[in-house]
Write a structure and sequence with these properties.
four-stranded antiparallel sheet, 104 residues, 10 strands, mainly beta, elongated
Length: 104
Protein backbone atom coordinates (compact mmCIF):
# COMPACT_ATOMS: atom_id res chain seq x y z
CA UNK A 1 0.00 0.00 0.00
CA UNK A 2 1.27 3.45 -0.88
CA UNK A 3 -0.01 7.01 -0.98
CA UNK A 4 0.88 10.17 -2.83
CA UNK A 5 0.94 13.09 -0.40
CA UNK A 6 1.46 16.81 -0.77
CA UNK A 7 3.57 18.33 2.01
CA UNK A 8 5.03 21.83 2.11
CA UNK A 9 4.25 22.38 -1.57
CA UNK A 10 5.93 19.21 -2.83
CA UNK A 11 4.61 15.73 -3.60
CA UNK A 12 6.02 12.52 -2.16
CA UNK A 13 5.32 8.80 -2.55
CA UNK A 14 4.82 7.41 0.95
CA UNK A 15 5.04 3.69 1.71
CA UNK A 16 4.91 2.22 5.19
CA UNK A 17 8.40 2.22 6.70
CA UNK A 18 9.90 4.40 3.95
CA UNK A 19 12.18 7.33 4.76
CA UNK A 20 11.51 10.64 3.01
CA UNK A 21 13.69 13.73 2.78
CA UNK A 22 11.38 16.76 3.17
CA UNK A 23 12.04 20.46 3.65
CA UNK A 24 13.14 21.49 7.12
CA UNK A 25 10.47 20.92 9.80
CA UNK A 26 10.52 22.88 13.03
CA UNK A 27 9.60 19.94 15.30
CA UNK A 28 11.39 17.79 17.83
CA UNK A 29 12.98 14.52 16.82
CA UNK A 30 10.60 11.63 17.46
CA UNK A 31 7.42 13.71 17.31
CA UNK A 32 4.54 12.48 15.15
CA UNK A 33 2.79 14.48 12.43
CA UNK A 34 -0.38 13.65 10.48
CA UNK A 35 -0.56 14.69 6.82
CA UNK A 36 -4.15 15.12 5.61
CA UNK A 37 -3.37 16.26 2.06
CA UNK A 38 -3.37 12.81 0.45
CA UNK A 39 -3.71 12.95 -3.34
CA UNK A 40 -4.01 9.21 -3.99
CA UNK A 41 -4.14 5.94 -2.05
CA UNK A 42 -3.32 2.65 -3.75
CA UNK A 43 -3.51 -0.81 -2.25
CA UNK A 44 -5.31 -4.16 -2.41
CA UNK A 45 -5.45 -3.94 -6.21
CA UNK A 46 -7.39 -0.68 -6.33
CA UNK A 47 -6.54 3.00 -6.32
CA UNK A 48 -8.50 5.93 -4.91
CA UNK A 49 -7.79 9.32 -6.44
CA UNK A 50 -8.93 12.48 -4.68
CA UNK A 51 -10.46 15.65 -6.06
CA UNK A 52 -8.06 17.20 -5.04
CA UNK A 53 -7.59 15.21 -1.79
CA UNK A 54 -8.90 11.82 -0.64
CA UNK A 55 -11.42 12.35 2.15
CA UNK A 56 -10.64 10.52 5.38
CA UNK A 57 -7.15 9.49 4.30
CA UNK A 58 -4.03 10.52 6.18
CA UNK A 59 -0.40 9.58 6.49
CA UNK A 60 1.32 9.47 9.88
CA UNK A 61 5.04 10.35 9.91
CA UNK A 62 7.72 10.42 12.60
CA UNK A 63 10.27 13.26 12.53
CA UNK A 64 13.89 12.15 12.34
CA UNK A 65 17.24 13.92 12.01
CA UNK A 66 17.93 17.22 10.28
CA UNK A 67 20.44 16.83 7.44
CA UNK A 68 22.16 19.17 5.01
CA UNK A 69 22.81 18.68 1.31
CA UNK A 70 26.30 19.06 -0.12
CA UNK A 71 27.34 22.63 -0.78
CA UNK A 72 26.27 24.17 -4.07
CA UNK A 73 28.65 26.81 -5.40
CA UNK A 74 27.17 29.78 -7.27
CA UNK A 75 29.64 31.90 -9.23
CA UNK A 76 28.55 35.25 -10.65
CA UNK A 77 30.68 36.98 -13.27
CA UNK A 78 30.28 40.01 -15.50
CA UNK A 79 32.88 40.36 -18.19
CA UNK A 80 34.72 43.66 -18.71
CA UNK A 81 33.36 45.02 -15.41
CA UNK A 82 35.85 43.41 -12.98
CA UNK A 83 32.95 41.78 -11.12
CA UNK A 84 32.94 38.26 -9.80
CA UNK A 85 31.38 36.77 -6.71
CA UNK A 86 31.32 33.27 -5.22
CA UNK A 87 28.43 32.18 -3.01
CA UNK A 88 27.91 28.81 -1.31
CA UNK A 89 24.62 27.32 -0.10
CA UNK A 90 23.67 24.15 1.81
CA UNK A 91 19.97 23.30 1.81
CA UNK A 92 18.60 21.86 5.07
CA UNK A 93 16.21 18.91 5.12
CA UNK A 94 14.49 16.70 7.67
CA UNK A 95 14.41 12.93 7.36
CA UNK A 96 10.97 11.53 8.22
CA UNK A 97 9.77 7.94 8.47
CA UNK A 98 6.29 6.93 7.30
CA UNK A 99 4.67 5.13 10.21
CA UNK A 100 1.21 4.34 8.87
CA UNK A 101 -1.15 5.05 5.97
CA UNK A 102 -4.80 5.33 6.91
CA UNK A 103 -6.88 5.00 3.74
CA UNK A 104 -10.55 4.95 3.00
Amino acid sequence: MYALVEYKGKQYKAEKGAQLKVDLIDAEKGSKIDIDSVLMVSGDGKATVGTPYVKGAKVQIVVGDNVRDPKVIVYKYKRKKDYHRTIGHRQQFTMVTVEDIVGV
